[in-house]
Design a protein that fits this description.
heterodimer; A: about 525 residues; mainly beta; ten-stranded antiparallel β-sheet; seven-stranded antiparallel β-sheet; about 55% strand; B: about 450 residues; 21-stranded antiparallel β-sheet; two-stranded antiparallel ribbon; 25 strands
Chain lengths: ~525, ~450
């Protein structure tokens, strides 16, 4: 046993002596540098992505295959409520009860007829002469109040307000002293306002009251009171003469956002086009007087009057249909032959502003009746077709991007941003990016000097890109520049652009086609300090 | 994350290497020799391993360098230099560890027969990895622009299973033959069935493409958090056999061979496998157009979008099909020459059959034995290219109590961090009654 214990103790000592020597309390890593690379952004921009940004613009390809940015605006749009509107109207009539006298009748009847004048809510309402009026919706409220001492049956008829050939008719029993009120849906009633024995815009109301006479009850000088009121009447269609009314329109604009953020530039757009299109479903002459039509240019200071022959030089009458349901369309196209549209676009128009007035029946009543339905519109639209064909130079624009880089710059020893642009557009650009603090104080820039980050695609003699050009730009940051970037709150980007050989004296005309693309890849390579103890 | 890095670096730097138990195979008088050759009889009629102490095996091996080569001990702090560690790796690296804790062992000799019952828990870690994957992690992908960094062959088979082993051996003249029938119960497994991946970083755009095939099977990992439930489970059945032969042509020579761990485990419980189904993972930049709203760039969302795109790229499909894993077969060949009754010389060859290939070991040793109460051995081994392995073994017995200790690399015990291999095995048994033939002089040769 002694040997056993001796050897056992020896082995245990051998086993654990070294472990005691390496009694470790902590493990630490030696930091190291690693080099990481990755692609951050990979996008391909089509012409739609680049040019079709606003809701008021779209792209078309013209007959020459050139891409056009079309800016669309509605100069005005009238509907029936702008032309003629029936206001709420009320009429109260009383039916006095005559003394029945003697002999003693068991019943007595009172009959009466009244004229109700409709109230049209127009400046020239007094001259409005409506012939037919179809109701789209709305109500006729009838309130009957009896002060009579007897029970009474009252009936009311509007003989010239028909629905499915039947005149409006209403009967009701009233107890002594009772009041009853009802709303009647007047949808689909047609009012014929052409009775020769009435004035314009008037309708007849026929009343009848049948009184249950009771000789035991003394009759007084009591009466029935009847109140009629039209409420919230919407017109389905109306014919007649609507008067001569002036419709003033607010100033409105078309934004040409192609020049957003543009600071300066020289542009030459070839063959721009402005179309002025009227769609008129209202059967009456309307005269339009353009009070202003101008462009605001890229400096937001300069205004240029837009001259459109036949539109801006004198009031003009919009073509109108002669049959209800038809639409008269009139298209006026303006080029540099009959307008100065090319001039204002080449000046860098950012907005086109207009104001105008419209007058209905400018020459008074017409041989034909005016008409309008609730579906009819009088609309004038204008489209500015900006063909992306021409040249530009000295085009400088800027943009500001808010950034928030939540990274520890101490771990970033060196960063290289790689920008790869595969440019299928006929334009060159130089760029400078400034970093600013939250107060927009400049702290640094990405480039020592503005740098050409993309070069024009290769073009043929017609200015059409036949091969894209790839440009790779490495932007290396280290030390303080990384700190400035990670602490920056904004990046201000300045871009100087020129179409291929666009500056004088070459003034090379280029064309933008709808299949052009711009490949955009942003990658990063970074030397990173790694301290595993802090991971 | 830090814990993960530490574990990873220890696996690499202090990788666990194959333990061939070369000393155990030849150390006379230790009943646990039967673990490595089922034909070996004990020298006592009845053997009882002390529960939980019958055989404890601790292994530590490093295929590439010692801890002191890659680590610095600064007082009580271990400082790890990842770059230096990676420089020490081979192009293809291989790690294997088997930990075995024998909870219980009982053996009984009757006539020419020997029956043995043992219960053990085994943990296998079989890891292969290319140096490139750690070069990629440390140096970064920017150091490999335009190169396809192959991480093919990255594989892990980590298994914890329980083995109930019934052994039978019989003497047939000059021959002793034996077999173990092992009933296996898998507790947890991670098995990289396929990992043939490569990472390519485009030199121009820095876009990253990860291609190839991956299939990783797991089972039982969700159970580990509830350790009490985990350790008592008997699920995921498997079966394996061990075969052994000892041939003693005369009193001077003894030849032996054994094949262990022929079998595998079928994993059925809580299976989660992850496959890419042939898909490549492309880590491209986001489309910035998705972050332009009304003409304005949402820069805050861009940074989030980039982070999201990275996390979304590496998504594997999960499947729950049963799968099987093989054990790692081992083949021992031994020869022993008895110079005298006390002095013996031996040689041992061991081959282990991994998925990545065969790992050989060779050992030459000397043994001194004094009756049944003391065996001492020393050996020198070459283990898969590692030449600094001097092993010792000791068995002492006092009455029925037997203690044994052995190491395939004793020098490491005195300065563990200077050596690539550290190995201990020790245990305590109760032994009763010498065998009849052991009483004879020749028995000392057992």
């Amino acid at each position: 046993m002694k040997k056993f214990f001796f050897w056992s103790v020896l082995c245990v000592i051998l086993l654990f002596v070294s472990c005691q020597k390496y009694q470790l309390d902590d493990v630490k890593f030696k930091p190291f540098d690693t080099n990481l690379a990755g692609e951050l952004i990979n996008s391909t921009f089509t012409v739609s992505d680049i040019f079709e940004r606003g809701s008021n613009s779209f792209l078309i390809v013209d007959e020459n295959g050139v891409l056009n940015v079309v800016y669309k605006g509605t100069i005005f749009s009238f509907s029936i409520d702008d032309i003629i509107k029936l206001g709420d109207a009320e009429m109260t009539n009383t039916l006095p009860y005559p003394n029945p006298g003697f002999p003693i009748p068991v019943m007595d009847t009172i009959q009466n007829t009244e004229v109700f004048t409709l109230d049209f809510d127009l400046d020239d309402a007094e001259n409005v002469e409506v012939h037919e009026l179809a109701i789209l919706n709305g109500f006729l409220n009838i309130k009957l109040a009896s002060d009579l001492a007897f029970s009474t049956k009252v009936s009311l008829t509007i003989p010239n307000a028909t629905k499915d050939g039947q005149p409006f008719h209403y009967e009701v029993d009233l107890l002594p002293g009772q009041t009853k009120e009802n709303n009647f849906d007047m949808s689909d009633y047609l009012f014929d306002l052409t009775q020769e024995d009435l004035g314009f815009n008037q309708i007849l109301i026929d009343y009848q009251a049948i009184i249950s006479y009771d000789p035991d009850i003394p009759a007084g000088d009591d009466q029935l009171t009847i109140t009629l009121s039209f409420k919230d009447i919407g017109i389905d269609f109306v014919t007649g003469y609507f008067g001569q009314n002036l419709i003033a329109l607010d100033t409105d604009t078309i934004d040409i956002d192609l020049f957003d953020n543009t600071l300066q530039g020289q542009f030459q757009f070839l063959d721009p086009l402005l179309t002025f299109t009227t769609y008129n479903g209202i059967g009456l002459p309307v005269e339009v007087d353009v009070t202003e039509f101008k462009s605001l240019n890229i400096d937001d200071q300069t205004e240029t009057e837009l001259i459109l022959e036949g539109i801006t030089d004198a009031p003009f009458i919009i073509a109108y249909p002669t049959v209800m349901g038809d639409t008269a369309t009139m298209v006026n196209e303006f080029t540099n032959e009959n307008s100065n549209i090319e001039t204002i676009l080449n000046d860098g128009a950012k907005k086109i502003v207009w104001g105008l007035n419209a007058t209905t029946n400018p020459n008074g009543p017409t041989p034909e009746l005016n008409f309008i339905s609730h579906e009819a519109r009088l609309k004038i639209e204008t489209d500015v077709h900006l063909p992306l064909k021409g040249y530009a130079w000295d085009w400088v624009f800027t943009d500001t991007i808010a950034i928030n880089v939540d990274e520890n710059p101490e771990e970033l020893l060196e960063i290289t941003f790689r920008l790869i642009l595969d440019n299928g557009f006929p334009a060159d650009a130089i760029v400078q990016v400034y970093m600013t603090d939250s107060l927009f104080q400049l702290t640094d820039s990405l480039f020592a000097e503005p740098s050409q980050i993309f070069a024009s695609g290769i073009i043929d003699q017609d200015g059409i890109v036949i091969q894209p050009t790839k440009t790779i730009t490495d932007i290396k940051l280290s030390g303080e520049s990384i700190t400035n970037l990670t602490e920056a709150s904004h990046l201000i980007i300045f871009v100087g652009m020129e179409t291929t050989n666009g500056s004088p004296p070459e003034n090379q005309v280029i064309q933008i086609k709808d299949d052009y693309t711009l490949g955009f890849i942003l990658s990063i390579k970074a030397k990173v300090f790694v301290n595993p103890d802090e991971i | 994350m830090r814990r993960l890095i530490i574990i990873s670096l220890f696996l690499v730097a202090g990788g666990l290497n194959a333990q061939q138990d070369l000393t155990l195979y030849q150390l006379s008088g230790v009943p646990q020799r039967n673990l490595v050759n089922p034909a070996v009889f004990p020298d006592s009629k009845m053997v009882i391993g002390i529960p939980a102490l019958a055989s404890i095996n601790l292994n530590y091996n490093n295929v590439s360098f010692s801890v002191n080569d890659g680590f610095v001990i600064d007082g009580s702090t271990l400082v790890i230099d990842p770059e230096y560690l990676v420089s020490k790796l081979n192009d293809d690296n291989y790690i294997y560890n088997q930990e075995q804790d024998q909870w219980f062992m009982f053996g009984y000799v009757f006539g020419k027969n020997y029956l043995q019952l043992g219960i053990s828990d085994k943990v296998l870690i079989d890891l292969t990895f290319p140096k490139s994957i750690f070069e990629l992690a440390i140096q970064g992908n920017a150091a490999f622009l335009g190169e396809r960094v192959s991480i093919e062959g990255l594989g892990l088979n980590a298994t914890h299973y329980r083995e109930i082993s019934l052994g039978y051996a019989r003497k047939l003249g000059k021959w002793d033959v034996g077999i173990h029938a092992n009933l296996l119960f898998g507790l947890a497994n991670i098995y990289t069935r396929t990992f043939d991946m490569g990472i390519y970083t485009d030199p121009e755009t820095y876009a990253i493409l990860i291609d190839g095939d991956i299939e990783v099977n797991t089972s039982g990992l969700d159970n580990i958090d509830d350790f009490g439930n985990y350790i008592t489970r008997m699920v995921n059945n498997g079966f394996a056999v061990d075969l052994g032969v000892v041939y003693k042509p005369n009193k001077d020579w003894e030849f032996s061979t054994s094949i262990l761990d022929l079998g595998g485990i079928k994993w059925k419980e809580n299976v989660k496998s992850y496959v890419n189904n042939g898909k490549s993972f492309a880590l491209n930049g986001i489309d910035i157009k998705d972050y332009i709203y009304d003409g304005d760039l949402d820069t805050d969302s861009i940074l989030e979008g980039i982070k999201d795109s990275i996390s979304e790229v590496f998504k594997l499909d999960e499947v729950n099909d049963n799968y099987g894993t093989p054990l790692t077969p081992k083949w021992y060949i031994g020869a022993k020459y008895n110079l005298t009754e006390q002095h013996r010389f031996y040689a041992t060859i061991n081959l282990q059959f991994f998925r990545a290939g065969i790992r050989p070991a060779f050992s030459l040793g000397y043994e001194f034995r004094l009756e049944r109460n003391l065996s001492v051995t020393a050996n020198y081994s070459i283990i898969s290219g590692s030449y600094a392995n001097v092993g010792v073994g000791l068995m002492v017995r006092g009455g029925p109590l037997q203690f044994y200790f052995m190491s395939d690399n004793l020098l490491a015990a005195f300065n563990a961090f200077n050596y690539q291999a550290i190995h201990y095995r020790f245990g305590i048994n109760l032994t009763f009654g010498p065998l009849d033939d052991v009483k004879s002089t020749r028995a000392y040769l057992r």
